[in-house]
Design a protein that fits this description.
Layout lengths: L2 H77 L2
């Protein structure tokens, strides 16, 4: 094996190692992106759940106020001569 053939072989090995390292780095970046996406989805779901709870509480308050108005109307109508 000549010196130039040895250098050529070393370059090929170095290129293969570099390609493998880049592939690993790409997978790490992809995994980090997946984790961020998952966290984002969880936060969005929590926001939707909280909105549903807030809407139910608001609806209950509205229903309570409507019932109170009905009671007041009955009282007013019963007090009329």
């Amino acid at each position: 094996m000549t010196n130039s053939e040895s250098i050529e072989q070393n370059n090929q090995v170095s290129n293969a190692v570099l390609a493998a390292e880049l592939a690993v780095l790409g997978e790490v970046v992809s995994t980090v992106g997946d984790v961020i996406s998952t966290i984002s989805t969880v936060l969005a779901l929590e926001g939707v759940r909280q909105s549903e709870i807030d809407n139910k509480n608001t609806q209950k308050q509205i229903d309570d106020l409507i019932n109170e108005v009905k009671k007041l109307k009955k009282q007013i109508n019963n007090e009329k001569p």
